[in-house]
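[09:14] KT: can someone run the structure on this one? pasting the chain below
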Amino acid sequence: MNQRIKEAYEKRPKDWMYNLAIGVIFVGLMVWSGSAVETAGTTQDGGQIALNVLAGIFHPDLSFLFDFSNKGVPYLMLETICIAFLGTIVGAILSIPLAFISASNLTPKPIAFAGRMIIMAVRTVPAFVYGLMFIRVTGPGAFAGLLTMGVCSVGMISKMYIEAIEDIDTHVIEALDASGFNMWQKIRFGILPQLLPNFASTAIYRFDINLRDATILGMVGAGGFGAPLIFAMNAYRWNEAGAILAGLIVLILIIEYISTRIRLKLTRG
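[09:31] RB: done, structure tokens below
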């Protein structure tokens, strides 16, 4: 047995030359890429500025962090949650008819194709562009962020809803049809019980994404953490920036824990 193993080992493919060539090419590409790095934009005191940034972030302004007025971090946390939550609700509601129209197992192919084109068009526009558009319409504030989150959520949620609809068990619907159920009863007892867990899980997952995106959109005036964060950074008030980031980290951790537990409950029953 050992002799056979030894013979098989001796007959193994000897491709070390190939691996060596791949390694040389990889190292060469890394060296060539490094030669294109430009450092002309850095300043002599860049290192000190980086240390000041880190010092401010790790020593947040506690008075700002625990300020319960409409200028403090707790209020900004609440506003960010509301923007993400209501935006997710709007996106989830708008996605339901789009998903049913675009599902190829429920509608004719031309209609499903038109629905998918609409969803693709919505997904094509970046969130920043939607944010700037709604700010022009409604003015800066949380409502512009809510509308932006709602429209941006439609693309992803609709796509996930379509996959859930196309994966439903049609035998259940056929059994209800054979039992004499009408269309609404088939939807109520055959389709919705299969779709609701997937729909809810998708909406919760999108809420996690919207919670992070709401901070970025706030930088263009769409409410939440973004605007105060960019103002603090532009004014070199790193202690305030650290307080905002600390509140954001705590918020993300809490929401992540809660959403994970809910998704596990939905998937496992």
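[09:33] KT: thanks! The mean pLDDT is 80.
[09:34] RB: yep, looked fine to me
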